[in-house]
Amino acid sequence: MLTVREAHARVIAAFAPLPGEIVSVADAVSRVLAKPPAARLTQPPADLSAMDGYAVRAADIPAAPATLTLVGQAPAGGSYDQALKPGEAVRIFTGAPLPMGADSIVIQEDTKADGAKITILEAPTPGRHVRKAGLDFSTGDVPFAAGRTLTARDVALLAAMNLPWVSVYRKPRVAILSTGDELVMPGEPVGRNQIVSSSGIAVAALVRGWGGEPTLFDIARDDAELIQGRIAAGAQHDLLITLGGASVGDHDLVQDALKAQGFAMDFWRIAMRPGKPLMFAARDRARVLGLPGNPVSTMVCALLFVRPALERLLGQSGDLISTQPAQLAIDVKANDTREDYVRSRLSRGADGTTIVEPHKVQDSSMLSVLAGSDALLVRPAHDPARKAGETVQIIELAGVAGGY
Predict the structure, then answer these.
(1) Do 70 and 110 touch, CB atoms closer than 8 A?
(2) 180-214 core/surface letters (b: 16 or more CB in 10 A; e: else)
(3) Which residue segments constitute the domains of the chain, with CATH numbers given?
(4) What is the pLDDT of residue 247?
(5) 296-307: per-residue pLDDT in tens?
(6) Which pTM value belongs to this model?
(7) Average pLDDT for the chain
(8) DSSP letters spanning 146-168
């Protein structure tokens, strides 16, 4: 069987970035940049006052107190358009441009006004309370590289740079197909031998959170012709995700249906737990990831393989999700031949160290355990027995983008 890293490498190698599209900057949050945006203006466009007070020439006030003559004012949205002469001051407000010749602002609390005579009580230095032209950005500045997922803060900056439109990667279109006679949708009558399908809904939510556009197909019953039809429709998307039916039992029909549609199987088993029956197939530009049917296996495999595939489609690295160190809270037994992703709780030691404690029950059908987990403890294949206090590697679920 392939290792997780071998399978991951094969998956991301099969995907390339999608074309870009132009969207309004107002709709660009959470989208991924396809082209680096460049500022269309300089901000501030001129030296501006950062405070309410008086614009002065610092050279006129070598020491305080000193008295200057008020010759005009510069309100926000207005300006004083004459050059400031020696001994003169201009009343100025926050955001107004400095008059020509002025190089400092004296805040109004440090002055005393008597008609047109302004007494300066504290000597300023050049540049005091002045926002220099270009302090924020200048025309042509490129703040972000392609591949960046835009935050609300990023969008605010792009709007300030006078960019009404930005180029982003098209959202990956992802079809999601659950198969099996035993499945019903939430709210439907549940028969004696049936279970409520949650995996498709979970994967759709993850795809949406990771920047894709999911299409959740109706559950396909165990009928070869029906499954072939759904696969044909799903193959029109950027990625088809199948859930269940990818093993080799008599009722696992997905592999046969894919082969009948001309798909070549890359792999269908990997050395991990949960998630051994993971499948990957391709035909021309169509790609299929077959995830296990058990809901916990589905979500762990989605994190390790669907997320990187979507990243690649969005012009990003598609790296395997990173881990971080933690200390074991309890002893654990030696691991077997499969890399194990152990559902766990986290706590903090007195010194701030991250402490990880695996749940006692790890059944891949138990969503309650996954929902109550803070992390996945990653145990390599053949990892020896570990004692409490040893350093191990975890995936902290709170740090996974997209609402995992």
Answers:
(1) no
(2) bebbbeeeeeeeeeeeebbbbbbbbbbbbbbbbeb
(3) 4-17+171-313 (3.40.980.10), 24-43+141-169 (3.90.105.10), 48-131 (2.170.190.11), 324-399 (2.40.340.10)
(4) 58
(5) 999 999 999 999
(6) 0.89
(7) 95
(8) TTPBP-HHHHHHHHHTT-SEEEE
